[in-house]
Request: fold
Amino acid sequence: MKFLLGIITVIVFGGCIVGKNGNMSAPPAVVFEKTACFGTCPEFMLEVFPVGSCYLTVRNNMPLDSGKYSCLTCSPDDLKVILKKAKKIKFKEYEDKYDPGVTDLPSIMTSIEGKLVTNIMDAPAELIELEQLIDSLYIQNNEWQKLVEKK
Reply:
């Protein structure tokens, strides 16, 4: 019985420690995602990790082909800029969702250190500035290398 309990404990807690890629790593400090709309909105997800690595999953309507990319030129200082801005605007105090009920607009989901804010419309100006800063620092001004998918 103790052996079975030990195995269950290892599975449960081991699953919490091991990242989704099977390696021991912290969760992303920043996740920035734009969803689809009825037009040609960019659709992607950016993950910025505390150790400095950045990954971009392109889904649609981007200059890059669909797939997962690793950042070749991202600076760890960019994360510091984002975290400083988030603290300054009191990001953790924002509402979880800004949504007036319009269904054909894309969502912009920003998660910083575990706090997720979804912006569909009518978000505070400071949140929009933060979103634009993340987009500028990471999406617009870096080189990305497509990762080879394992089959």
Observations:
- The domain at 25-146 is CATH 3.30.1560 (Mago nashi protein).
- Residues 29 and 114 are 7 Å apart (CA to CA).
- Helices lie at 2-17, 76-88, 125-140.
- The two ends are 39 Å apart (CA to CA).
